[in-house]
Amino acid sequence: MSKFIVSPKEGVPFVSVQAMAKMIHDYGVEQCITDLVDALEQDYLRWDQFEKSSRFASHSKDGVIELMPVSDGEMFACKYVNGHPINTTRNLQTVAAMGILSDVENGYPILLTEMCILTALRTAATSAMLAKHCAPKGVTKLALIGNGAQSEFQALGMKAIMGISEVRLYDIDPAASQKTADNLADSGLNIIVCRTLEEAVLSAEIITTCTADKTNATILRDDIITKGVYINAIGGDCPGKTELDSNILMRADHVIVEFEPQTRIEGEIQNLSSDFPVTEFHRILKGEVQARKSADDLVVFDGVGFASEDFTALVFLRDLIKKQGGYEILDLIPQQADPKNLYSVVKGHSKNHSLVTNEAESVAMS
Amino acid sequence: MSKFIVSPKEGVPFVSVQAMAKMIHDYGVEQCITDLVDALEQDYLRWDQFEKSSRFASHSKDGVIELMPVSDGEMFACKYVNGHPINTTRNLQTVAAMGILSDVENGYPILLTEMCILTALRTAATSAMLAKHCAPKGVTKLALIGNGAQSEFQALGMKAIMGISEVRLYDIDPAASQKTADNLADSGLNIIVCRTLEEAVLSAEIITTCTADKTNATILRDDIITKGVYINAIGGDCPGKTELDSNILMRADHVIVEFEPQTRIEGEIQNLSSDFPVTEFHRILKGEVQARKSADDLVVFDGVGFASEDFTALVFLRDLIKKQGGYEILDLIPQQADPKNLYSVVKGHSKNHSLVTNEAESVAMS
């Protein structure tokens, strides 16, 4: 499939929140996550082809702003994403993200998109993919600790890929659990809102922690974690932001990570020695390492989110809008006749022709 | 001045190429560069307040894709920029850039913009500011070696800030020189198109090299550089891409850089030992170090472009559009009532209300 949505001379395709929401609604969240899992597996199988680096992080008092670049040699992807747990008290989202996909051959952007919704989908798909290869088979009960923006996507991903039928919700904010329960009322899942964390994890075979506080919290205590459980720990994702009692990691039979250098900085294992043994997921997918040896194994996915997952999601979106549209064209790159004559764009200031921009400006400038 | 153009709940202001071209045309290129020099000086004076890092670079066969993040603790800026000299043979620009400015307090983007034109302006302003503080006083003749996309902006910047009256053009592509001469015909500058580099540098007091080839070229030979000349070398800006005979640097009385760690990797000094003495410009601006001690001094600015200059340009643009508009509103961040209820945006897929997006989608989707 050609990497181009439109020619680089036509402008840069942009997917707005509204367009993304409509597209995903029509496509179906579970179908979208299912297809993303396939795409993620294909890209994790070619792990070695990606130019990888730990994400850039600019930390401030209440949050972090991150850049997540990655390239497979043909396309370059970068996500701009923040993490400000305090934002919900300001009636703003914890995470605001945007993504760019570009052509390595000429450096031109080929896609610009909202990435709040897309990130929730790719994170749910990554969690489901890890569970598919690292959790016990035939599980039916999921405990969902932290019922914020990610929770419904996480629940539907585990339903679609793992066949989860019961979801046990817990959040220190009961309204968040109720919100998640209401959103999933018609999902076909048996939703149980729990008043305590102990009640939520009771009998759960998969425990997902997706809390947001930027502290070294102990969301899961060691004493409530039984043998054979699979822990999908995705809320701890930057220095000083973790969720698990370190004893859980110490006694785990296997701790699985995405890109080890980044997880050493950002993951649950930041609280352990730098030689604490972990396995990068791609090795499990390739069959080089077994995720679990017995039904009693305690396996933990220390997920922080890696740039290649956003690359996969951006290419997935690229393919989707190539088929069905739903994008705008942004007038982002000058298109003058002589590429060396950038000055003519200012001197003439009417050389660029972008239908959407003309439309838009007539609105913004009126 | 408030850092917000519009409230974070209203969407993200976007400046298109067409809007930028009109704004700069109406504002005047020389006035714009003059104001940018003032703004750059203010920010270079508070150099220590910026969180600085060398830019991220992803190199490929024909070019490079870079991310340039920087923060002053209140706002975060990042420029996406590529460098593909081969692009002109594809009728594409060597550089395609976009910029994002965001609010450190909540991580939300507050401005998204084209940055090809803005980068040409900030680079011309940076060159003019360095010349203002490091070149001899009373100079009138500029040699401009390399007459591509940056050349007119460079000439007008040196005219506005240094009082340059004569510009001597040379490029291996005569059509590029003619293009620059035509664009500057009504600038009030005396433009001389030269057939050889020697002819161009003859009698020039400032020599600007802004060539694009990604090679360790020797655009300027040591034997044609006379005493007292100021060299503004801005074309060499990544590993394997330099313009000067190393002997020029060796015999220079002073080599000035922006952010030393980045210039060691990307600048002309990449060809010299890692302890070759250089001075960061902010020290000269603060009066800690003298740029030149005698009229005979050979001073070289080894410019590569630093993220704080883009920060300054983005804040300048932010202030400009706050006064006069000229931006669109992008539907980039979900705006649902409950920030924890991201899922509702997909379930409802009609929660976002962006006038421009509605306009745009009615076009893109029709």
Automatic annotation (TrEMBL), chains A, B:
For this protein, the parts annotated as crossing the membrane are: none
> By its UniProt entry, which InterPro entries does this protein fall under?
NAD(P)-bd_dom_sf, ODC_Mu_crystall, ODC_N
One Pfam family recorded for the sequence: OCD_Mu_crystall
Protein name, UniProt field: Ornithine cyclodeaminase
